[in-house]
Amino acid sequence: MTIHLAGGIALYDGKLLMVASRYRNQAQPLWNLPGGRQRDGELLFETVQRELREETGLDAAAGELAYVSESYDGDVHYVNATFVVTLRDPKAPLRAAGDGDHVVAVEWVPLADVRPRVVVEVVREPLVAFLENRLQRRYVGYHDAGITIEWPDDSG
């Protein structure tokens, strides 16, 4: 099975927009870029715009493709397209998490704090390399994701 994901890099005033999501098989919420799974019939740039709005409350336009990363968790193949996004109003209030919501925090994170905050290597390394302008190719691949995520609507 292949799961397509799209995430957005939103920068403002030296900070990166990030979300913390809770997953039932992880002890602590995981920090990541706003984004998520592509829906049937949806283009990846539409996915990132929808997910960013759902997770942060902010409207954005997807711009250039920052990078593509892919990884495997057993038989599950993840392909993640990360876009640079432009927020329509970066000063707008961030959304608050609701009851039962997997997003438990939304914050503007200083760039110096991104590396220690993102604990998942397959997320952290391409993101930090892109932010530091040292991503040689706009592609990163991992044969082993090093983590298993149970999505909020997974059965079991």
Structure, described:
- The two termini are 17 Å apart.
- The protein is globular.
- The protein has helices at 44-56, 114-117, 121-131, and strands at residues 2-9, 11-12, 15-21, 30-32, 35-37, 60-73, 76-87, 103-110, 139-142.
- With 156 residues, it is of the alpha+beta class.
- Strand 2 and strand 3 form a beta hairpin.
- The strands form two sheets. It has a five-stranded mixed β-sheet with strand order 5-1-7-6-9, with helices on both faces. Strands 2, 3, 4 and 8 form a four-stranded antiparallel β-sheet that branches.
- The protein has a single domain, classed as Nucleoside Triphosphate Pyrophosphohydrolase (Alpha-Beta Complex), CATH 3.90.79.10.
Summarize the structure.
The chain has 156 residues and is of the alpha+beta class.
Features:
4-stranded antiparallel sheet, 156 residues, 9 strands, Nucleoside Triphosphate Pyrophosphohydrolase, alpha+beta, 5-stranded mixed sheet, globular, 18% helix
Explain the layout of strands and helices.
Blueprint: E1 2-9, E2 11-12, E3 15-21, E4 30-32, E5 35-37, H1 44-56, E6 60-73, E7 76-87, E8 103-110, H2 114-117, H3 121-131, E9 139-142
